[in-house]
Amino acid sequence: KGTILAEEILLGSFVLRDLAGNLSATEGMLELSSLTLSADQGDLDATMRVDLNPVPFEYEFSAQGAPVNVNVIVGLSENTSMGPGRLEIEGHGRGPESNDLKAKGVLHLGEGEIPTHPILVQTQSALGIQNLVGGAYQSSEAQFTIENSRVDLSGFSLETPQAGLDIAGWVSLAGPLEIDIGVRTPREGVSIPKVPSAVLDTLSDDKGWLTVPVEVTGTLEDSKVRPDVDALVGQAGRGATRKLKNLLGLD
Q: Which residue of 13, 126, 132, 134 is most buried, as measured by CB atoms within 10 A?
């Protein structure tokens, strides 16, 4: 029994600092409790259990952090617009490699503003709109899993008075990503190359809003954003059917 202290721990490019906690060990089982540690993303409280008998070793953990800096988590500088977050995560794995880590968690997002993130700036440009970045969003939460060195988002929403975002997909710890974004926005002002205005008109609802599916690929540093034209065409067919039923009073 004792205590554990570490000024810095490197996990690949991820840096943990000022780790402190209680330690107990017996028959190859290591228990770490009341752990506190710091990262650029925020401070965490954690517990961890390590079995040193198998090769490689096995472990399980749980951690909570509040507040965490959501701006840093999504790859932005600290002085940006997203509100504070609260993180809960638990997982298990074998050995020191991230490929063997499996975890699940939830990131609670406090109120904030849609940030000037390169992906969202490209999204605005691809749709010909200006009402996305800077909008004040409501509190939300994002559930995620980690497996095979990949973070999977099960889907979450950000809502502002001017627009809405439905986000799902995955981000690899090695860099690549594939994210689907459904952008809800007023029809007025939306302009997409190769998509006729009549198609967009068909997609708008009774309030004059439409949802445009957008595909994001590449990496956080070099992302490629494009509207999913095939999905739009499919939606247009359903939209035309719906509007015809409305005219005929068949709803």
A: 132
- Read off the pLDDT of each residue in 48-56 and give the average, rounded to a whole number: 95
Q: In which residue are the tokens 């070099």 written?
A: 222
Do 194 and 209 touch, CB atoms closer than 8 A?
no
Task: Name the DSSP class of 85.
Answer: E
CB atoms within 10 A of CB 121: 14
Q: What is the pLDDT, as a whole number, of residue 236?
A: 66
Phi and psi at residue 114, to the nearest 5°:
-55, 120
Q: What is the rounded CA–CA span in Å between residue 208 and residue 213?
A: 17
Token readout for 209 is 């809003």
- State how far the Cα of 169 lies from the Cα of 153, in Å rounded to an integer: 5
Amino acid, single-letter form, for residue 125: S
Q: What is the pLDDT of residue 49?
A: 95
Phi and psi of 8, rounded to 5°? -155, 140
Cα 133 from chain centre: 17
Tokens of 1: 């029994």
Render pLDDT for 55-66 as a digit per residue (tens, 0 to 9).
999 999 999 999
